[in-house]
Write a structure and sequence with these properties.
The complex is a heterodimer of chains A (about 350) and B (about 425). Chain A is an alpha/beta fold. Chain A has 11 helices and 14 strands. Classes of the chains: A alpha/beta (about 350), B alpha/beta (about 425). The complex binds flavin mononucleotide.
């Protein structure tokens, strides 16, 4: 991989639970000042915190460019509702939505719904993959130009451009079409944390962006290579997959730490490898890993969002920009454009245009 | 003077939204929602209302293509609208059959936090095997069970909302009933309104009882003075047995308003809108909905079919069926014969009329009269145009209502409960 490939940066804005809008808006705006690709907001049905998708919908009109990626669980939710909500986040943000698909493995989470018992992670990730699959089909179920407003024939839509998905999964079925028209990005960006073995196959098959935990550029490169091979085996072009290393960062109070980092003994915390050091140390690490060509970028989870995100943006990112490793403005408007991922054509569109129209 | 409540319905998937008008803009873009919500807030409205449908309508086995099709998901749109409004209540229609209490209570509580106390939930129960085909549940609930599920759903949601103390301590909950058997800890503290406002829409005896026992607002279709007064008396009369006061439930019919500089001009405008709403194709469709037969070969400018309706038809999916098609057909025939009307003219004359037509003065007087006569506590305005459909009302009628002292000039409180004059729910920990 050439070392010149563009660097992608994303940050988590969760942390201790907050329920008001202002604190989330402030963090997302800060990340936007740093021209990060996207912010994530982690969510779980089992520990205190608001619904992440709703929070990022609230953030959408208060920001203009930054991508918005809430965690959405697939285990106890309805796939049809999940696909509608994510598509709507894309509409209200004008093409900046993604979602991080996740599963709920615990008995405690199962009891919150009382519909089905807890299941092993492997089965739930298989199901999560199906949810990602049906969501994408539902997003495609309206062709982009389905709304015609043809006054002469009195038709608002061309129903030949609306498609039933007739999806039969192992635990659910969906008839379709979506009730939400195809979102601005065609398909909002699907993110999966591929660190756990159970998630990796679904990530390789369905995700646009995969977050991976790694403690060295070599390990990251090997994992990314494995993911790309699996993606290829599923018929995907490897260039349609972005692999970001997940790092939990504690930038402390100093510009540089006396003993920076993960190398002096990486600790696992949150969703990534634990890194401690100053903003400059983090920039060094990112530069080194990125030059090694192993990965497309980094997903940073600040240990103390208010403090560390400010240091990431004004310290680390500023330095990376100074080194011309990271952009200084958003050349595009949508999250797919930030990630240099093409807007997918709807899968049903080709089929219907090849059929003769009456 | 009795104060009026006003709400705005986003025009969408129904047969009255006129998409062919040159002023009609996107039904989906956020800017359309933003314009209408800001207009409603400028008019000091109580809340902004979004309807829901979980499957695209079908007609004669195919997706219905004449009316507006498609809409974004309500709670997500309202969360975004919370960013561009300050006081306006934000009401989402969400089905109680195809959702689960834990998840929905959490989403509603989140919206209440994000909007600083402006969230409302319109509990609907519509469910059929047709809609169920999009869900894990499938179409599994008998009509009779839907309201028992809805009632237990609302009660369970309130248990979850009460599972945090007002001081902010989370306590475990456990609910075990015929519909739900759940336990654990809720992830969201008590929200600014205590409980989001609960709205009910549905007209059957069960629906009215459900509203009387548990809702804060009822959304009805009874738009005339007589029907409104009867409905109002009936529903308010049901409150006492639940230990509730008449003011605890606000009755708000969905109504349409057509304005003109004069009453005559407004009548002219209304006729024009009716013509837009009932296109030639829509006239045949309306006929098919009554007849339950494929009538596509009929001329909308010609006479009504001689053949009788098929009462066992399944032509229409995803919308409420005509209760007695033979009776409706007989009425339409009688009208058509007596006035020598074509299919289209018959449909225009017999289907939903605009509720309030006149100059701003006339409309303001009429609205005030309805409220004073206890035909309603207020109105949910259903404009026919997106997104400018409320501009005229807010600019011309609202100031007159304010002059009359019938409607607020400024918001007094900041929560939807305060606009509606509803008390904060007592915490039942
Ligand atoms: C004014 C009004 C608005 C309604 N809006 C919706 C809606 O947006 N979505 C929906 O699924 N059902 C809607 N309904 C349907 C009701 O929830 C209910 O299922 C239906 O009226 C049948 O119940 P009933 O027999 O008690 O009237 C609405 C009903 C009324 C009266």
């Amino acid at each position: 991989m050439p070392a010149t490939r563009p660097l992608h940066l994303a940050a988590e804005i969760g942390g201790p639970p907050r329920y008001d809008a202002d604190s989330h808006v402030a963090l997302a705006r800060l990340a936007e000042q740093g021209t990060l690709d996207y912010v994530t907001l982690d969510d779980s049905l089992a520990r205190p915190g608001p619904d992440a998708l709703a929070v990022l919908a609230r953030v959408a009109p208060a920001t203009t460019r930054i991508g918005l990626v809430p965690t959405v669980t697939t285990t106890h939710t309805e796939p049809f509702h999940v696909s509608s909500a994510v598509a709507t986040l894309d509409w209200v943000s004008k093409g900046r939505a993604g979602w991080q698909a996740d599963v709920s493995t615990t008995e405690a989470e199962a009891r919150l719904f009382g519909r089905r018992p807890a299941a092993p992670a492997a089965a739930l990730w298989q199901e999560a993959g199906e949810v990602a699959d049906v969501a994408a089909r539902l997003w495609d179920s309206w062709e982009d130009d389905a709304e015609i407003r043809d006054v002469a024939t009195g038709r608002f839509v061309d129903r030949d451009k609306l498609h039933y998905v007739d999806f039969e999964g192992s635990t659910f079925s969906v008839r379709g079409p979506a009730v939400v028209p195809r979102p601005p990005q065609g398909r909002p960006v699907t993110v999966i944390d591929g660190t756990s073995g159970a998630a990796r196959e679904s990530a390789a098959r369905h995700a646009d962006v995969v977050h991976m935990r790694a403690t060295s550029p070599e390990q990251a490169g090997a994992l990314a290579g494995d993911l790309r091979r699996r993606a290829t085996a599923h018929g995907r072009a490897p260039g349609t997959l972005r692999v970001l290393v997940a790092l939990t960062v504690d930038l402390g109070d100093a510009e540089t730490a006396p003993e920076p980092g993960w190398e002096s003994g990486p600790q696992l915390a949150g969703r990534g490898t634990y890194f401690r050091g100053g903003p400059v140390d983090l920039a060094e690490l990112i530069t080194r890993w990125h030059r090694a060509g192993a990965v497309d970028g980094f997903h940073l989870t600040p240990i103390a969002p208010e403090r560390d995100l400010e240091r990431i943006v004004n310290g680390t990112v500023a330095l990376l920009q100074h080194r011309s490793l990271f952009r200084t403005f958003y050349p595009g408007g949508t999250l797919r454009e930030h990630l240099r991922l093409a807007r997918p054509a709807g899968r049903f569109a080709a089929a219907s245009t090849s059929e003769p129209h009456s | 003077m009795k104060q009026m409540h006003l709400a705005a319905h986003f025009p969408g998937v129904n047969s009255t939204t006129v998409w062919a008008d040159p002023r009609s803009r996107s039904q989906i873009d956020f800017s359309s929602f933003e314009h209408l919500a800001r207009t409603a807030e400028r008019g000091r409205f109580d809340f902004f209302f979004l309807a829901e449908g979980l499957r695209l309508r079908e007609h004669n086995g195919r997706i219905h293509d004449l009316d507006v099709v498609g809409r974004p998901e309500s709670l997500t749109v309202l969360s975004a609208l919370a960013a561009v409004t300050d006081r306006l209540g934000l009401a989402a229609t969400v089905n109680a059959t195809f959702n689960e209490p834990y998840e929905l209570a959490r989403r509603l509580a989140t919206l209440d936090h994000l909007s600083a106390g402006r969230a409302a939930w319109n509990v609907v129960t519509s469910s059929d095997a047709f809609t169920g085909e999009n869900f894990r549940r499938g179409g599994y609930l008998d009509r009779a069970d839907r309201y028992s599920r809805a009632a237990e759903f609302v009660a369970t949601a309130r248990e979850l909302w009460d599972s945090w103390t007002p001081e902010g301590t989370s306590r475990p909950f456990a609910h075990s009933g015929p519909q739900f058997d759940i336990a654990g800890e809720f992830t969201v503290p008590r929200s600014p309104q205590g409980h989001p406002v609960v709205i009910q829409a549905g007209d059957s005896g069960e629906g009215r009882e459900f509203a009387a026992s548990t809702a804060d607002v009822i959304f009805t279709r009874h738009g005339t003075l007589e029907a409104g007064r009867a409905f109002y008396a009936d529903v308010k009369g049901r409150l006492a047995k639940y230990g509730r006061q008449p003011d605890d439930l606000k009755i708000m019919p969905g109504v349409t308003v057509v304005l003109g500089d004069t009453d005559a001009e407004a009548q002219h405008n209304a006729a024009e809108i009716r013509t837009q709403q009932v296109s030639p194709q829509n006239a045949i469709l309306a006929l098919e909905q009554v007849w339950g037969r494929d009538l596509s070969s009929y001329d909308p400018d010609g006479p009504l079919p001689a053949v009788d309706p098929d009462p066992g038809s399944s032509l229409v999916q995803g919308r409420v069926r005509v209760a007695d098609p033979l009776a409706v057909a007989a009425k339409w025939r009688a009208l058509s014969e007596s006035k020598d009307l074509s299919i289209r003219r018959t449909v225009i004359e017999s289907t939903a009329r605009q509720s309030f037509i006149g100059s701003p003065e006339t409309v303001a007087a009429e609205l005030t009269r309805f409220v004073a006569a206890d035909a309603a506590d207020g109105f949910i305005l259903v404009p026919h145009l997106t997104p400018g459909g409320l501009d005229g009302f807010v600019d011309q009628v609202v100031p007159l209502l304010q002059e009359r002292g019938a409607f607020r000039s400024e918001y007094v409180g900041s929560t939807l409960r305060s606009h509606l004059g509803l008390a904060e729910p007592v915490w039942k920990g």
